[in-house]
């Protein structure tokens, strides 16, 4: 008997055994279902988060630096308190920095506030108002859907003009074009000269479409006369980023009169810090998920092993008959391995269906998730591997039975 015939016969017997013990097979698969569902959900969630993260982090840009008083990430509460005591970056310091920094594609100061934006009887609340210059469009990489961006003259003169995000435009102007309209940002009236293209959200938290960009002089006059400036710097290329960072650090230390040997009283933030932090957190989540998955599969595998031992004991006479008429050890071994694998594969398929339903619900209510073929393939392979490992000892015991002793079994 060749291998193909043995596999076909063993598979048929295995499926008949599963059908003959439907309730027992179903109960046995519970542990496998939980384990495979955990594997699939964890893989899908990490893959979806990674995709959303990469899309969001692209807004920052790999060739940009952000010089500010605050650091994006701190290691301790003590460090955070030290940062809070740092002096703000003033307008004069920002101007001096912009005029002296060389070998960069652009520098834009940025000050911010949150305001309610109004047009007639329509409102947009919690709008992020970004006070900056005409250089910001080039540095940010944003594109315009309608109108234009502020000119150097409008920026330098602090003209009452603004560019609004798509969400603000949709809320305030559902049935008319926004360009040329006068809106109130807080208590100040500004003319809409442009609308940004849809930007989406950053890290699934803040909407980049719910914003308004104005000349920073307007923000100083109307909302905050002593703000804390951030300086967005775009290097000539990613290769030049390290040199640009060193130049920016040295220039900022000189402008802020930091003596030699004293620590910086400002931070230079970059995209790499987000990536490092994200993958650190993702690694912890993956490790915890693997531990939970491993425990679930261990419990499920032990359950299948016990059930297979029971199955071998119940079918001892059948094994004896098959061996007496010429069945080889490998044939018996293969039969019980395929039976254990079939039970695990059944549990894996049920787990995939349950996971698919969960991902649909999460996609609808929380954030986009999509099961990928590689994740599904890994789930199926884990199911089969669990079946082979947990069924090996019972199958080996069945294969080694003495046919005479087996036939005596009643």
Describe this structure in words.
The chain has 410 residues and is α+β, with helices and mostly antiparallel strands. It has two domains: 3-56 and 276-408, no CATH class; 87-265, no CATH class. It has 15 helices and twelve strands. It has helices at residues 3-20, 22-28, 30-57, 77-84, 91-100, 136-140, 152-157, 166-172, 216-222, 241-255, 271-314, 316-324, 329-365, 373-399, 403-408; strands spanning 64-68, 104-119, 122-132, 144-147, 161-164, 182-185, 188-196, 201-202, 206-207, 211-215, 230-235, 267-270. The strands form two sheets. A six-stranded mixed beta barrel has the order 2-3-10-5-7-6. A hairpin with a 2-residue loop joins β2 and β3 (122-132). α13 (329-365) packs antiparallel against α14 (373-399). The chain is elongated, with a radius of gyration of 33 Å. The two termini are 29 Å apart. 35% of the residues are buried. The mean pLDDT is 83.
The major pleated sheet works out as: 6 strands, mixed, barrel
Structure class: alpha+beta
Q: Radius of gyration, Cα only, in angstroms?
A: 33 Å
Shape: elongated
Instruction: Provide a count of the helices.
Output: 15
Low-confidence runs (pLDDT<50, min 5 residues)? Answer: none
Number of strands: 12
The CA-CA distance between the termini, in Å, is 29 Å
**Series of H and E elements:** HHHEHHEEHEHEHEEEEEHEHEHHHHH
| Tally of separate domains | 2
Amount of helix:
55-70%
Q: Order of strands across the biggest sheet?
A: 2-3-10-5-7-6
Mean pLDDT: 83
Strand coverage percent: 15-25%
């Amino acid at each position: 008997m060749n291998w193909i015939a043995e596999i076909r016969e063993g598979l048929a017997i295995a499926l008949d055994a599963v059908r003959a013990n439907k309730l027992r097979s179903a109960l046995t698969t519970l542990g496998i279902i939980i384990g495979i569902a955990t594997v699939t959900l964890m893989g899908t969630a990490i893959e979806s988060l990674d995709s959303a993260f990469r899309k969001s982090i692209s807004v920052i840009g790999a060739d940009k630096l952000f010089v500010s008083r605050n650091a994006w990430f701190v290691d301790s509460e003590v460090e955070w308190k030290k940062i809070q005591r740092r002096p703000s970056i003033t307008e004069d310091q920002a101007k001096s920095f912009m005029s002296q920094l060389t070998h960069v594609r652009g520098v834009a100061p940025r000050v911010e506030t949150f305001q309610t934006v109004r047009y007639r009887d329509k409102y947009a609340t919690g709008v992020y108002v970004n006070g900056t210059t005409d250089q910001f469009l080039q540095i940010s990489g944003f594109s315009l859907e309608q109108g234009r961006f502020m000119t150097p003259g409008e920026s330098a003169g602090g003209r009452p003009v603004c560019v609004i995000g798509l969400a603000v435009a949709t809320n305030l102007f559902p049935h008319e074009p926004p360009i040329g309209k006068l809106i109130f940002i807080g208590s100040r009236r500004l003319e809409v000269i442009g609308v940004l293209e849809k930007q989406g959200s950053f890290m699934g938290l803040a909407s980049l479409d719910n914003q308004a960009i104005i000349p920073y002089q307007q923000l100083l006059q109307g909302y905050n006369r002593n703000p804390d400036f951030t300086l967005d710097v775009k290097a000539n290329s990613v290769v030049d980023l390290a040199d640009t960072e060193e130049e920016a650090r040295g220039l900022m230390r000189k402008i802020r009169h930091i003596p030699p040997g004293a620590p910086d009283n400002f931070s230079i933030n970059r995209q790499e810090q987000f990536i490092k932090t994200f993958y650190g957190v993702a690694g912890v989540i993956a490790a915890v998920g693997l531990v939970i998955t491993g425990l679930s599969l261990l419990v499920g595998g032990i359950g299948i092993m016990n059930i297979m031992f029971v199955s071998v004991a119940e079918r001892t006479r059948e094994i004896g008959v098959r061996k007496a008429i010429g069945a080889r050890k490998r044939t018996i071994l293969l039969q019980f391995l395929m039976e254990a694998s079939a039970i695990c594969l059944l549990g894996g398929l049920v787990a995939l269906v349950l996971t698919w339903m969960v991902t649909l619900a999460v996609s609808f209510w929380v954030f986009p998730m999509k099961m990928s073929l590689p994740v599904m393939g890994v789930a199926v392979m884990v199911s089969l591997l669990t079946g082979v490992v947990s069924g090996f000892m019972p199958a080996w015991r069945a294969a080694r039975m003495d046919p005479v002793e087996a036939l005596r079994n009643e």
